[in-house]
Amino acid sequence: MSVREFVILGTASQVPTRHRNHNGYLLRWDAEGILFDPGEGTQRQMLRAGVAAHDLNRICVTHFHGDHSLGLAGVIQRINLDRVPHPVTAHYPASGQRFFDRLRYSTAYRETVGITEEPVSGEGAVLADTPAYRLEARRLSHPVESYGYRLVEPDGRRMLPERLAAHGITGPDVGRIQREGALGGVTLADVSEVRRGQRVAFVMDTRLCDGVTELADGCDLLVIESTFLDEDHQLASDHGHLTAGQAARVARDGNVRHLVLTHFSQRYGDPEEFARQARAAGFDGELTVARDLDRVPVPKRL
């Protein structure tokens, strides 16, 4: 059975707390798994969440600050220890190649799995174009080079029963017109409509910038940092971060359906204040203030 969900492995920012592990996020997309920003403790959080090394097909690192990447060494070694039988591809800022190399080979281990390295540079790119999704990256605004990621499912078509019936198309002929595009003078467009593909974006440490809005635009699910509350907006800007209200306004203006706020500073004790500020900013879609080990489903297609 296909599953599309975000598994939240950790939600802390620079300093973990008793209740929040450093960053770590897994997007399950049918038969594939994409691991984002494995901070310290990710391997243990994977165990607690029921995520295995065999579930990983890609690793996407937004930037090389420790809370987003120090768990990379353990995850890569676990991939090799478990002899994952399929290719694993790593995406990360090209400017951080030396950090990736140090983490990949930080200690001695037997390398049994070849990790394909596909770093990102410039303003961003299409990193992968598969039948199931297109993976894109956009440059963000942070003191070190940082990228956000966006996964876009190709558009499909939704069959319309009333139009099929009007043209007398039933049974096996429904599948035939889907495969061949026409049947007896009736085209696929005559009996169906475009079904927009699902879109998911992952946006970590950044100030407001064009990359943020481009990544969020039209997303079904947006997982985005909100390190600070709005009263600390100057602190957020100084350190290259977003506030809860800023993240919510991005989601509101981008017509996001489900907003997930995460990456919280340890200075705040009440996580519900992030939700209150997001609502005050005008976001009225589905909202989750992330907790470690939450599982957030990708909203069903409209």
What can you see in these coordinates?
With 302 residues, this protein is of the alpha/beta class. The protein has helices spanning 42-49, 66-69, 72-81, 97-104, 161-166, 172-180, 210-216, 233-239, 244-253, 272-280; strands at residues 4-10, 24-29, 32-36, 58-60, 88-91, 115-117, 124-129, 134-139, 147-152, 156-159, 182-183, 186-187, 192-195, 199-203, 221-225, 258-262, 286-289, 295-297. It has a seven-stranded mixed β-sheet with strand order 6-5-4-3-2-1-18. The protein is globular, with a radius of gyration of 21 Å. The mean pLDDT is 96.
Q: Based on Cα principal axes, name the global outline.
A: globular
Query: Biggest sheet, strands in spatial order?
Result: 6-5-4-3-2-1-18
The count of β-strands is: 18
What is the typical, i.e. mean, pLDDT?
Answer: 96
Alpha-beta classification: alpha/beta
Unreliable stretches (pLDDT < 50, length at least 5) are: none
Oligomerization state: single chain
What are the SSEs and their pairings?
Elements: E1 4-10, E2 24-29, E3 32-36, H1 42-49, E4 58-60, H2 66-69, H3 72-81, E5 88-91, H4 97-104, E6 115-117, E7 124-129, E8 134-139, E9 147-152, E10 156-159, H5 161-166, H6 172-180, E11 182-183, E12 186-187, E13 192-195, E14 199-203, H7 210-216, E15 221-225, H8 233-239, H9 244-253, E16 258-262, H10 272-280, E17 286-289, E18 295-297
Parallel strand pairs: 3-4, 4-5, 5-6, 14-15, 15-16, 16-17
Antiparallel strand pairs: 1-2, 1-18, 2-3, 7-8, 8-9, 9-14, 10-13, 11-12
Helix pairs in contact: 9-10
